Amino acid sequence: GEIQKWGGAQAVGKLLLIQPKLWIKPLAILAFVPVFKQIADVLYKLISRYRGRLPGATDACAIPPSASETK
């Protein structure tokens, strides 16, 4: 079969689609609906940029200084 690559909010949406809990699937589908896709992309970028400052963050969530200096 063909290998598809997903990134960002759509990768999270694909992961959520394979979860056994049925209530998650409608949320996952929204990551692919045009208006919601744009919102999901913005939210993903914000969360990924500030992931080290979010509750429950660990040292593994920290962005290396060289990566954050280029933004």
Describe this structure in words.
With 71 residues, this protein is mostly helical. It is built from four helices and no strands. The model has no long low-confidence stretch (mean pLDDT 86).
**Globular, elongated, flat, extended or rod-shaped: what is the shape?**
globular
> Class by helix and strand content?
mainly alpha
Helix content: 40-55%
Low-confidence stretches: none
The average pLDDT value, as a whole number, equals: 86
Rg, Å, rounded: 14 Å
Main sheet, how many strands, which sense, barrel? none
Helix segment tally: 4
N to C succession of SSEs: HHHH
* Total count of strands: 0
Summarize the structure.
With about 70 residues, the chain is an all-alpha fold.
List keywords for this structure.
single chain; 71 residues; mainly alpha; 4 helices; 0% strand
Question: How do the strands and helices of this protein lay out in sequence?
Answer:
Layout: H1 8-17, H2 24-30, H3 34-49, H4 65-69
Helix pairs in contact: 1-2
